[in-house]
Amino acid sequence: MLHKLNLENILFLDIETVPEFRNYSELDDVKKSLWEEKSKYQRKDEFTAEEFYNRAGIWSEFGKIVCISAGFFSFRDGSRHFRITSFKGDEKELLNDFNRLLDKYFFQPYNLLCAHNGKEFDFPYIARRMLIHNMRLPAKLDLFGKKPWEVPHLDTLELWKFGDYKHYTSLKLLTHVLGIPSPKEDIDGSMVRDVYYDNGELDRIVEYCERDVVAIAQVILRLRQEVLLGDSEIIAIE
Predict the structure, then answer these.
(1) What integer best gives the mean pLDDT of the chain?
(2) Is 119 helix (H, G, I), strand (E, B) or coil?
(3) In DSSP terms, which residues pair with 81 in a beta bridge?
(4) Which of 10, 49, 151, 198 could form a disulfide with 36 if both were Cys (CB 3.0 to 4.6 A apart)?
(5) Reported pTM
(6) What is the per-residue pLDDT across 86-122, written as a single tens digit (0 to 9) for each?
(7) Cβ atoms of residues 124 and 224 within 8 Å
(8) Counting Cβ atoms within 10 Å, is residue 53 exposed (0-12), middle (13-18) or buried (19+)?
(9) Helix (H, G, I), strand (E, B), or coil: what is residue 198?
(10) Where does residue 233 rank: exposed (0-12), middle (13-18), buried (19+ CB within 10 A)?
(11) HSE on the CB side for 181, CA within 13 Å?
């Protein structure tokens, strides 16, 4: 079935998240208590709630999105291109911009969103943050009442699992075993919080996010046994 998909109908995406506030001390007392309860299982007795707060970005209730990068294929006059753009900065503004992209270009029933571990992380995270900002959910993220086969999402991690629910493979590992060339990485996911809050270098995060979007598209090409994208085929758009 993967071979039957029209690549132009797929929007590839990745998000980068950080804790909602720079420091634990900025939380009010109620949020501190809720964070202590929420993080208790993961931190066990190794960390206090305050020490563990640097990892709060992975929970949508305690984090925020600082970048959404999205890419799509374009086939014109016998040539193939992969166009990529990013929404960054203020969370509500970038969510609105992403919403407009979906409403304008990827609203048809046949359009799909594709991410790595997107069904467990990216898609629900975006939807929850939109609702927290009291925003309307776009059709591609409004899953209420939908049957599993009606959900317009494609997940490269799920494709690689082949039904093995216990199996997790990072995007970095997957690209490596599939022989997909990996560009030199300036940062990794564990560094995003520090790069954002301590260094104030949002553009570094955007570049990292965009590289992951390209990698996701490359995985789909490899799974379809098609020629990988060359550098000249990847076009950044504002």
Answers:
(1) 94
(2) coil
(3) 74
(4) 49
(5) 0.94
(6) 999 999 999 999 999 999 999 999 999 999 999 999 9
(7) no
(8) buried
(9) coil
(10) middle
(11) 7
pLDDT at site 47: 92
- What is the rounded distance in angstroms from the CA atom of residue 189 to the CA atom of residue 29? 29
Residues 106, 107, 110, 111: what is their CA dihedral angle, to the nearest 10 degrees?
Answer: 30
Q: Tell me the pLDDT tens digit for each residue of 21-34.
A: 999 999 999 999 99
User: What are the residues facing 16 on neighbouring strands?
Assistant: 67
Residue found by looking up tokens 């969370």 in the block: 91
Instruction: Give the strand pairing for 112-115 and 10-19.
Output: parallel
- Going by C-alpha positions, the residue among 82, 36, 106 that lies closest to residue 226 is 82
Tokens of 143: 């899953």
The residue type found at 191 is: M
Enter the tokens of residue 211: 């590289």
Instruction: Write the DSSP symbol of residue 111.
Output: -
Distance CA 216, CA 77 (A): 25
End-to-end Cα, the chain, rounded Å:
33
